[in-house]
């Protein structure tokens, strides 16, 4: 991305899109009973509350009545329908992991089979987005957490800690290309959850081959454990590699969330918050629910002078419903250089 003179002025930035992740499948309800919704009615109400607070993208997982993360597509359909009826402008983003929570005590958290994840393209009502991982990768979500992050929670138990320490993401090239094809055929936008520049480069190569003709709407997930660490150098390198036509959100975990989001607000990027990422205030004196986290970001963004997007603005910024007919169009719309024609020399530019 290019940062010319004036790039940090709010009048030269899009309104801020706030993604919220209020369902937190790695936690048990006993970890934060005041904020983790369990009944279907409470899960729907949580989405409404987040939208009313200022979030316009909802990262969605579902719980069963016993509080465990659901892997039933029928439960996803029920939640999607309930939210769509209450807040139709909210962008519904289904987490492609389909609740990575362990099945039972002592088991490792894992993503479901390739065939099951493909079924996310059949959800009804149709979500606006499904997140996708690129390249099979370690996802040790507890690696950069400290004892204070998990004190008194289910992750502090040896079994809970190991379950998430040993998690991996299955995302090979054949599955990824087929998944994007199925989502696009159903009018569902692919939202890329990327761990580092190598995964971004894989997405670019897919676009150059014409097997990924979609907007580059992506999140940099800086959580360590196989993903980038949330430091300034990794951030600068990743942002520099992202083309100007992309829409970039920053994501990290625990007490890194607020400072990284402040950087995103200042730079004209977009933010994500919620108990899936962090449950603590910055002083660790108390836990902080998703709605309060959203309200905090709304307040900070307004202090920066940057307005917060409403639902219709977020849909425009995210290019919901937009797909492309060729590799050439995809590259141009996303801000990548064109493919090199046979015999062409020198630097590449669009006509």
Please tell me about this protein's structure.
This protein is an alpha/beta fold and 351 residues long. 35% of the residues lie in helices and 12% in strands. The strands form 2 sheets. The chain has an 8-stranded parallel β-barrel with strand order 1-2-3-4-7-8-9-10, surrounded by 8 helices. Helix 2 links the parallel strand 2 and strand 3 (91-94). Helix 1 (40-53) runs parallel beside helix 10 (290-304). The longest helix is centred in the last third of the chain and has 15 residues, at 290-304. It is globular. The two termini are 20 Å apart. The mean pLDDT is 94.
Task: Name a few traits of the molecule.
single chain; 351 residues; alpha/beta; eight-stranded parallel beta barrel; two-stranded antiparallel ribbon; 10 strands; 35% helix; globular
Task: Summarize the topology.
Layout: E1 18-20, H1 40-53, E2 57-60, H2 73-86, E3 91-94, H3 114-118, E4 129-133, E5 137-138, H4 147-150, H5 158-165, E6 168-169, H6 173-185, E7 189-194, H7 197-209, E8 217-222, H8 232-241, E9 247-252, H9 257-267, E10 270-273, H10 290-304, H11 311-318, H12 327-334
Parallel strand pairs: 1-2, 1-10, 2-3, 3-4, 4-7, 7-8, 8-9, 9-10
Antiparallel strand pairs: 5-6
Helix pairs in contact: 1-2, 1-10, 7-12, 9-10
Number of helices: 12
Strand content: 5-15%
Gyration radius, to the nearest Å? 19 Å
End-to-end C-alpha gap: 20 Å
Portion of residues in helices?
Answer: 25-40%
Order of strands, main sheet, comes to: 1-2-3-4-7-8-9-10
* Largest pleated sheet: 8 strands, parallel, barrel
Pfam families: BKACE (PF05853)
Cofactor: Zn(2+)
Protein name: 3-keto-5-aminohexanoate cleavage protein
Keywords: Metal-binding, Transferase, Zinc
């Amino acid at each position: 991305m290019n940062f010319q003179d004036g790039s940090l002025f709010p009048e030269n930035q899009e309104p801020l899109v706030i993604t919220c992740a209020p369902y937190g499948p790695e936690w048990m309800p006993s970890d934060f009973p005041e904020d983790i919704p369990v009944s279907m009615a409470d899960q729907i109400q949580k989405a409404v509350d987040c939208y009313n607070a200022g979030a316009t993208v909802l990262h969605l997982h579902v719980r069963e009545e016993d509080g465990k993360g659901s892997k039933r597509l029928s439960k996803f359909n029920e939640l999607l329908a309930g939210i769509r009826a209450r807040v139709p402008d909210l962008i519904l983003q289904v987490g492609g992991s389909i609740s990575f929570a362990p099945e039972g005590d002592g088991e490792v958290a894992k993503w479901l089979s390739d065939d099951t994840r493909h079924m996310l393209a059949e959800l009804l009502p149709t979500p606006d987005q499904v997140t996708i991982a690129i390249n099979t990768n370690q996802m040790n979500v507890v690696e950069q957490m400290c004892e204070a992050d998990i004190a008194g929670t289910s992750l502090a138990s040896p079994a809970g800690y190991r379950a998430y320490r040993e998690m991996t993401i299955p995302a090979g090239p054949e599955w990824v290309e087929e998944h994007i094809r199925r989502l696009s055929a159903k009018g569902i936008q692919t939202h890329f959850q990327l761990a580092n520049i190598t995964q971004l480069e894989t997405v670019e190569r897919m676009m150059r081959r014409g097997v990924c003709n979609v907007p580059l709407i992506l999140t940099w997930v800086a959580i360590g454990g196989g993903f980038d660490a949330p430091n300034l150098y990794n951030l600068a390198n990743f942002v520099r590699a992202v083309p100007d036509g992309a829409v970039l959100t920053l994501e990290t975990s625990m007490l890194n969330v607020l400072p990284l989001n402040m950087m995103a607000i200042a730079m004209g990027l977009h933010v994500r918050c919620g108990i899936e990422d962090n449950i603590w205030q910055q002083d660790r004196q108390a836990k902080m629910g998703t709605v309060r986290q959203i309200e905090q970001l709304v307040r900070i963004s307004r202090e920066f002078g940057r307005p917060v997007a409403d639902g219709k603005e977020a849909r425009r910024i995210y290019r919901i419903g937009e797909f492309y007919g060729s590799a050439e169009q995809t590259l141009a719309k996303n801000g990548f250089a064109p493919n090199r024609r046979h015999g062409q020399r020198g630097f590449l530019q669009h006509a």
